[in-house]
Write a structure and sequence with these properties.
alpha+beta, BirA Bifunctional Protein, domain 2, 2 domains, seven-stranded mixed beta sheet, two-stranded antiparallel ribbon, 12 helices, 9 strands, rod-shaped, binds phenylalanine
Length: about 350
């Protein structure tokens, strides 16, 4: 019995000192101690030499060492397996993470969202449409038939593959698409990028952004147009700002007007922004022309509506003090970083 005790103590030492660094070592451990020809098996074979009255105790000692060897083996398996995935994936989990660069909204997008936000308070929804348009949606349906002289007002880019396609010169094309759907009444905003063949300079570009609006229902009048735009201006530029309408011409509206507001830089006293006039032009507008309604299968005897359209870059330039329109599209991060994410 004493000999057995010594044997087991020796075995325990061997179990503890067996080097296991990788899965193959763990397997070697199993074969050496727990395998069918392993140390434990051979000691068990010696049970027959133990006196019958001592067999019970000897059996207990053997069981203890067996479960000890099994648990050590399991630990070796777990440890070496975890290590393999770590090495193979090439990931060093102890490395500190790299900081995430957080982007922010482009100033044009911010201004656009600000405009949309104000009209949303009045229940206007947002509609979008394609930037490559057919002649009908950009011109024809808007009361600009072929060879109409007003087409020259907007220096149009034509698409070479198809003479019927243009880069939309205004988002009025989306107004047509909305009216054609025939879901009346309509209270919609059409924000988007538009294209005109103009020489690129600090004050003009071959593309820019617009927000147009359209309201069609029974008995919509010019008074509604005025009140809606007055609400917009007060929300955007403050309660003290005054508005004025100057008669204008757009083929798709009748009557048409351009709306000015008292200069929000000098308060109407005269400065370089308003060219000393005290007023700044901010949008074009008017009552939707009956021909346009008819082109979209809307009965002009029953329905009337107003439309307006404004640029986004100019108010953004004034608001953020940007003096060159080109900066908006150059994507220079030094410029963009000046508009950090809103907290
Ligand atoms: N579509 C016009 C433009 O691009 C703006 C406008 C829209 C004018 C709606 C009147 C009514 O300049």
């Amino acid at each position: 019995m004493e000999a057995l005790r010594q044997q087991l103590a020796q075995l325990r030492q061997e179990i503890d000192s067996f080097p296991v660094l990788q899965p193959a070592d763990a397997e070697a451990f199993r074969i050496r101690f727990l395998g069918s020809k392993g140390s434990l098996k051979s000691i068990m074979g010696e049970m027959k030499n133990v006196l019958p009255e001592q067999r019970k105790e000897a059996g207990q000692l053997l069981n203890e060492i067996k479960s000890y060897a099994e648990s050590v083996y399991q630990q070796h398996v777990d440890r070496t397996a975890a290590k393999t995935t770590e090495t193979n994936s090439g990931i060093d989990r102890s490395r500190p993470g790299s900081p995430q660069a957080i982007g922010s909204r482009h100033p044009v997008t911010r201004m656009k969202n600000e405009i949309i936000g104000i009209f949303q308070k009045l229940g206007f929804a947002v509609a979008e449409g394609p930037e490559i348009e057919d002649d009908w949606h950009n011109f024809g349906a808007l009361n600009l038939p072929a060879h109409h002289p007003a087409r020259d007002m907007q220096d149009t880019f034509y698409v070479q593959q198809n003479p019927d396609w243009v880069l939309r010169t205004h988002t009025s094309s989306v107004q047509i698409r909305e009216m054609e759907k025939g879901n009346l009444p309509i209270r919609m905003l059409m924000p988007g990028r538009v294209f005109r063949n103009e020489t690129i300079s600090a004050r003009s570009h071959c593309f820019f952004h617009q927000v147009e609006g359209l309201y069609i229902d029974e008995q919509v009048s010019f008074a509604d147009l005025k009140q809606t735009l007055y609400f917009f201006v007060q929300e955007m530029y403050g309660k003290d700002v005054k508005i004025r309408f100057r008669p204008s011409y757009f083929p798709f509206t009748e009557p048409s007007a351009e709306m000015d507001i008292t200069c929000f830089i000098c308060g109407g006293e005269g400065c370089p922004v308003c060219k000393k006039s005290g007023w700044v032009e901010i949008l074009g507008c008017g009552m939707v022309h009956p021909n346009v309604l008819r082109n979209c299968q809307i009965d002009p005897e029953k329905y009337t509506g107003f439309a307006f359209g404004m640029g986004v870059e100019r108010p953004a330039m004034l608001k953020y003090g940007v003096n060159d329109l080109r900066l908006f599209s150059e994507n220079d991060v030094r410029f963009l970083r000046q508009f950090p994410a809103l907290s």
